[in-house]
Amino acid sequence: MNSKATHRVVIVGSGFGGLNAAQSLAGADARITVIDRQNFHTFQPLLYQVATAGLSPGEIAEPIRSILRRQKNIEVLMAEVAGFDLERRVVQTDDQEVAYDSLIVAAGASHAYFGHDEWIPFAPGLKTVEDAIEIRRRVLLAFELAEREASGGEPPAPLNFVVVGAGPTGVELAGTLAEICRHALAQDFRSIDPRQTRIHLVEGGPHVLPAYPEDLSRSALEQLQRLGVEVLTSTMVTKIEPGVIFMGERRMNAAVILWAAGVAASALGKKLGAPVDRAGRVLVQPDLSIPDHPEVFVIGDLAALKDKSGKMLPGVAPVAILEGRYVAKLIRREIEHGETSPGKRWPREPFHYWDKGSLATIGRAAAVAQFGKIHISGFLAWLAWLFVHIFFLIGFQNRVLVLIQWAWSYFTYERGARLITGSTKLPGWRQWDSGQSVNSKDGQEMSTKTYK
Amino acid sequence: MNSKATHRVVIVGSGFGGLNAAQSLAGADARITVIDRQNFHTFQPLLYQVATAGLSPGEIAEPIRSILRRQKNIEVLMAEVAGFDLERRVVQTDDQEVAYDSLIVAAGASHAYFGHDEWIPFAPGLKTVEDAIEIRRRVLLAFELAEREASGGEPPAPLNFVVVGAGPTGVELAGTLAEICRHALAQDFRSIDPRQTRIHLVEGGPHVLPAYPEDLSRSALEQLQRLGVEVLTSTMVTKIEPGVIFMGERRMNAAVILWAAGVAASALGKKLGAPVDRAGRVLVQPDLSIPDHPEVFVIGDLAALKDKSGKMLPGVAPVAILEGRYVAKLIRREIEHGETSPGKRWPREPFHYWDKGSLATIGRAAAVAQFGKIHISGFLAWLAWLFVHIFFLIGFQNRVLVLIQWAWSYFTYERGARLITGSTKLPGWRQWDSGQSVNSKDGQEMSTKTYK
Fold it and tell me: Which of A62, A134, A149, A172 is catalytic?
């Protein structure tokens, strides 16, 4: 640690926002502490590749310590943040207190189940590496169990996979799952035919990729349908039970149900005592600080801020990255000018987000991209997506490995990381056949009646 | 499935033995079923690389289905085998029965805790991918918790890692752990110094690598000591508690304890009703079948067979591979000659193992190798080890990925897969300070007193 420095900066969370804030404070005259409950940074845009067995977790995750190793004024603590004492200016972890002069909270967000958290074990979301491994386990296991039943004499029933929510995550999950069934797994089974698997993408709104311009939404829909995904728009999920999903009158048996709808900001937002919106995001000032606490900043998916046009900034990596750099620059300047005492903090340049465009992938050579007025679809958009993501992937080694794996699966349709680890049970597997419902809190139990 | 074929072969287990038996039955006039409780083949010789964060699980594991995809006469079932009915010639899984005409049992072995299974949660072994991930978690977590304590004001106490058993697995674990502490992690912490970590390798016998010629054992010992490993030979472990290991009078606090001693054959061996040795290995006939059941074969680590010189064949991959091929050839020939009825099965050529040599790695550019009369050590032996293992690694993609990762970490000392997933607790972490013992069955509990 830089012992001469007296100004202490604490950064909570090491996603895109927290990490970029830390990196932008390189060489600053401050002692910086990054606190995260995990020891690695997850490259979230590629989580769906882990969930669909295309990449290994290690290839999209990098230890926070090695990313920040050369910044001697930074220490990293792996700890769970329990709360804050803004008056005493300390962050409380489960076993200690960490004092700060400037605080940056970048704790991110996860999925919202619209007040139905009881659905979580039956329809996992995709926000962490653990989530991705769990989804991979369920998808691969569904085929294994179906093959086992069919080889044991049961009539093979085509599998249903349901993805809830047609935002970028839902779209890439559905598209990639459809590909796997048609290609990677097509030749691997003897008693079932994975190509018969039906992938359903359920969206409450009228369009897939709602945040995108309508022409791109339409194009995305066509590309999804070309991949064999059955898209249900304007359809609300009303209930989820083990292995069964209800959409109003409609009831569908599903071997795997995945949740990619809604946003729920980290619970740490509320603990700052600042106003939050319905999703729990902190309503920050134009300088990303919270009211009455110019020394406390909230960035990334946890922050709610409107741009000049009054449109809410989207919860995407570019926004978090720029917010992290903006706050770091601001703290730096105030340290250099000795303006860190509350009275002298003003005026601050408000944060301005300049939208460079957005990309969403759908599957093999399928994507949509918007760069200002320019809208592109298909192979070109997919190439753009690919190179942007490999370029921003943290760690040179990861870039090489991911590039190889993608080239490999592009030409062979192979999926390199098809590991089932952990439990070998699926919540509600075939429970609709056994007529016996499943009593499960952790989603690990299942009915074995069907095997009798 | 090949519907014309009438002869049914069931192979239990898809390690080196089972997999090679299956592959050698390619095109045979038989219906083959491979049953494994996991959906992937694990390249066990590289498990220690996963445990030490050098490789990702996906890089040393390959889905059994994709390995055997092109063999249309083979079906793969992911299921747990519960037992056998040798009279009715069926394998019983947890939910169905699979009939056979020829049975190959290759269920492998795990570690023996010498009747102290209560030590398992406090000293995990390294036999499966799950084991490797758990060991990786514990090793990395030990440093994170120590850094957290030290940054919280506790005096940093140097960490002790203990590896029990100095066979090939114990030696490579101890050597690689020593390297990581000196290099990969050296710059990553601010409050502790990983180079102060003490790696202890405890062996009950007088030498490390007991199965190797004495000059190579001596060389291995020197190479270990050069890496900074403290080797304790002729030392028996008498008790293990959470975070504490006892060797007779000696009591040592240990942040991580790893078990690499003893061999316990799979419990399926006993269920065959054939005689077994103390380790539970099945005492097979010279043709690897069991008494009175020429149609039932046991191969790999589960089989106990002496060579001409009366020496027990070692539990290593080359033996299992050759046994698998031998049995497959034998079954093939008897099918072709219609000799599958018990009366006509004789005579059979006995299995003969021709030892091509053995290799053991110790760490970066450190290894020992024996090819008949030729004994080599150090860099050359390590190169030999490296190329043999990359060559036998299943899946071209894996070979490329592993080669890149090794080249990368060889030149940069980096470890690419430093992920802590799962629980963030360590059994008995610092419990000797809190004076409060830990009550834990699954090894996930710990005392948090020390953080107060």
Answer: A172
Arithmetic mean of pLDDT, B337-353: 76
User: What pLDDT shows up at residue B5?
Assistant: 82
Given a contact cutoff of 8 angstroms between Cβ atoms, the answer to whether A132 and A51 are in contact is: yes
Is B172 among the catalytic positions? Answer: yes
Specify the pairing of strand A109-110 against strand A264-265.
Answer: antiparallel
CA-closest candidate to residue A445, choices A435, A432, A431, A433: A431
Closest residue in B to A417 (Cα–Cα): B58
Is A322 in contact with A19 (CB distance < 8 Å)?
no
- DSSP code of residue B406: H
| 8 Å CB contact between B417 and B54 | yes
What is the Cα Rg of chain B in Å? 23
Q: Using a CB-CB distance cutoff of 8 angstroms, which residues of chain A are in contact with residue B59?
A: 56
For residue A263, how far is the Cα from the chain centroid? 10
Task: List the one residue out of A6, A25, A5 whose CA is nearest residue A326.
Answer: A25
Q: Pairing mode, if any, of strands B40-42 and A40-42?
A: unpaired
Mean pLDDT, range B136-159, rounded to an integer = 91
Q: How confident is the model at residue A442, as a pLDDT?
A: 37
Question: Which residues have CB under 8 Å from A36's CB, separation 6+?
Answer: A12, A13, A14, A18, A64, A76, A77, A78, A79
| Eight-state DSSP code of residue A253 | E
List, for residues A282-317, the tens digit of each pLDDT value. Answer: 999 999 999 999 999 999 999 999 988 888 999 999
Nearest CA to B262 out of B283, B237, B228 is that of B237
Q: How far is it, in rounded angstroms, from Cα B401 to Cα B407?
A: 10
A7, A95, A355, B255, B288 from A32: Cα distances, Å: 8, 19, 29, 28, 64
Residue A363: phi, psi to the nearest 5?
Answer: 170, -160
Contact residues, chain B, for A397 at CB < 8 Å? 404-405, 408, 414, 416
Express as a percent the part of chain A with pLDDT over 70.
Answer: 92
Contact A20, A321 (CB under 8 A): yes
Substitution target from A35, A401, A425 for chain B, most B beta carbons within 10 A = A401
Amino acid at A450: T
| pLDDT at position B433 over 90 | no
Q: Do the bridges between strand A289-290 and strand B239-241 make them parallel or antiparallel, or are there none, so unpaired?
A: unpaired
Cβ atoms of A243 and A159 closer than 8 Å: no
Q: Chains A and B: how many Cβ contacts under 8 Å? A: 163
ipTM of the complex, rounded to two decimals: 0.87
For the segment B243-266, the average pLDDT, to the nearest whole number, is: 94
pLDDT digits (tens, 9 = 90+) for A44-89: 999 999 999 999 998 899 999 999 999 999 999 999 999 999 999 9
A389-422 per-position pLDDT tens digit: 888 887 777 888 888 888 887 887 778 788 888 8
Which candidate, A395, A351, A389, places its Cα nearest to that of A104? A351
Where in A204-337 does DSSP place strands (E)?
229-232, 239-241, 244-247, 250-253, 256-259, 264-265, 282-283, 289-290, 293-298, 303-304
Residue B429 Cα distances to B142, B244, B255, angstroms: 8, 9, 6
Q: How far is residue A356's CA from residue A374's CA, in Å, rounded to a whole number?
A: 11
Which residue in the set A39, A398, A416 is minimally distant from B140, CB to CB? A39
CB distance B148 to A77 below 8 Å: yes
| B166 and B200 Cβ atoms separated by less than 8 Å | no
Residue of B nearest to A1 (CA): B190
The closest of A74, A101, A77, A62 to A13, measured between CA atoms, is A77
Q: pLDDT (tens digit, 9 = 90+) per residue, B367-386? A: 999 998 999 999 999 999 98
Please state, in angstroms and rounded to a whole number, the distance separating the CA atoms of residues A182 and A162. Answer: 16
